[in-house]
Amino acid sequence: MNNKKGIPFPLLIIAIVLGWTIVKQFDFENLKFEKPAMAVIYILTFVMTVYMIFKNNNQDVEK
Q1: Which of these, 28, 53, 24, 50, lies nearest to 38 by C-alpha position?
Q2: Cα torsion for 20, 24, 29, 34, to the nearest 10°?
Q3: Residue 45 contacts residue 18 (beta carbons within 8 Å)
Q4: Which structural domain range is residue 19 located in?
Q5: From CA 32, how far away is CA 34, in angstroms rounded?
Q6: φ, ψ for residue 27 (rounded to 5)?
Q7: Is pLDDT at 52 greater than 70 in this prediction?
Q8: In a domain? residue 2
Q9: Is 3 inside any structural domain?
Q10: What is the pTM of this model?
Q11: Do residues 9 and 53 make contact, with C-beta atoms less than 8 angstroms apart?
């Protein structure tokens, strides 16, 4: 039997919310963020969340 798990739902929700927030904070006319310090925190958290999603997904496939 194959007990393959899917993508963790809470991490997926966090990634979607952070991605949407990053897009909303970015000013496309001036190519700058409205709040650069918060943008750094959002981007770092987004990258860590996406990394954890793929890390968990790869471990499930290998088992």
Answers
A1: 24
A2: -130
A3: yes
A4: 9-62
A5: 7
A6: -95, 110
A7: yes
A8: no
A9: no
A10: 0.79
A11: no
* pLDDT, tens digit, 9 for 90 and up, residues 9-48: 999 999 999 999 999 999 999 999 999 999 999 999 999 9
How many structural domains are present in the chain? 1
**Is the alpha carbon torsion for 58, 60, 61, 63 positive or negative?**
positive
User: Is there a domain that residue 18 lies in?
Assistant: yes
Residue 27 CA to chain centroid, in angstroms?
A: 20
Q: How far is CA 32 from the centre of its chain?
A: 20
The encoded tokens of residue 1 equal 């039997």
Return the structure tokens found at 63: 């088992």
Q: Which residue type does 21 have?
A: T
- Residue where the block lists tokens 């739902």: 9
In single-letter form, the type of residue at position 56 comes to N
